[in-house]
Design goal:
- The complex is a heterodimer of chains A (252) and B (74).
- Chain A has 252 residues and is an all-alpha fold.
- Chain A has a domain of 163 residues.
- Helix content of chain A is 80%, strand content 0%.
- Chain B is rod-shaped and about 65 Å long.
- The chains are: A mainly alpha (252), B mainly alpha (74).
- At the A-B interface, helix 2, helix 3, helix 4, helix 6 and helix 8 of A face helix 2 of B.
Chain lengths: 252, 74
């Protein structure tokens, strides 16, 4: 069976319906393990104290905020190049989830920043570029809702999504390119992570849990989007059938 | 349990972070569940009125219908 056949909406609904419960269970188990390690295994940081526990939420949320936009950018290519209906469904389903993770990244970062930096917010490059990402998510959601025809809306948002993808490297390298208050990368580095394993492992388990959560929510949202488009098609079909039957009566 | 209660002087910030994260994720999950329930109800209502998808109508020989964005034939 070709990958294109698997991406057929009807096959996707059947396959995702079987996969979703298992994904949910894996996600719950990963969160249980991650939260246990966060509160009972990971020690307090020698400088941050217990406030380091916010990082177990903030870092995965920030990673997912960017990964979600990457999924949307790849889906946008699928919409524009291959015109695959599931590509647009995937992009549209990912947008609110990406907005939620970006919101969590900003809020948890602020709540960490107040006790550690002495302020909830500074207009430095990393924080500002993530705020721009959040605004872009909201803008894309608004654009999808503004255009009634999902195919036209999909094309317009796909172009905008690809233009906005330029923000991803800006976010990633903002801490290297500019002098910011935000600390540089400490996990994904050429010379290895700069975090002690007792804190790194709980962080990685929480990141796995957040990633599984993203896939679970994204699959749920994609299934809803397929149903929404089927509903719209049926409503349009019913409306045109009503118009067709009403015309001869009007002529009489 | 002791570790949970001993979050230092910034416990309010830590607990707020976890509470907001939990509320956001729960809200997202509930919104998706409610959206699905609403869509399934609307689809069932239309099907009860005799409106069918092309794939559903093919068995009865009525293959006419609008081109869909996510139709089963694509």
């Amino acid at each position: 069976m070709a990958i294109a056949d698997l991406a057929n909406p009807t096959r996707f609904m059947a396959l995702s319906g079987r996969l979703l419960p298992w994904l949910g269970i894996a996600c719950a188990l990963a969160f249980a393990a991650g939260l246990y390690m966060t509160f009972f295994v990971a020690p307090d940081d020698y400088q941050q104290g217990a406030t380091v526990k916010i990082m177990f939420l903030h870092v995965p949320a920030a990673w997912l905020a960017m990964m979600c936009y990457s999924v949307m950018a790849v889906s946008a290519l699928g919409t524009l190049i291959w015109k695959h209906p599931l590509a647009d469904v995937s992009a549209r389903a990912a947008a609110p989830i990406g907005a939620a993770f970006t919101f969590l990244s900003l809020i948890t970062g602020s709540l960490w920043g107040k006790p550690m930096w002495g302020t909830y917010w500074v207009w430095d490059a990393r924080l500002t570029s993530v705020l721009v990402l959040f605004i872009m998510y909201l803008g894309l959601i608004a654009l999808w809702r503004t255009v009634e025809d999902p195919i036209r809306a999909g094309k317009a948002t796909a172009v905008l999504t690809l233009v906005g993808a330029i923000n991803l490297p800006i976010i990633k390298f903002s801490v290297d390119w500019w002098n910011t208050l935000h600390q540089p990368a400490s996990v994904v580095r050429l010379d290895g992570p700069a975090i002690h394993p007792t804190i790194l492992w709980p962080l990685l388990v929480m990141a796995l849990a957040f990633t599984l959560l993203f896939f679970t929510l994204h699959m749920m949202a994609m299934r809803n989007e397929v149903l929404r488009r089927r509903l719209r098609t049926l409503q349009l079909g019913a409306a045109s059938a009503r118009t067709a039957t009403a015309r001869p009566q009007a002529a009489e | 349990m002791t570790a949970l209660l001993d979050l230092g002087p910034h416990a309010g910030f830590i607990l707020s972070s976890y509470a907001i994260t939990l509320a956001t994720i729960a809200g997202l999950f509930l919104w998706l569940r409610m959206d699905r329930a609403r869509l399934v109800t609307a689809l069932e209502r239309l099907e009860a009125q005799g409106v069918r998808r092309r794939s559903g109508r093919s068995a009865t020989g009525n293959g006419a219908g609008p081109r869909t964005a996510t139709g089963s034939g694509r």
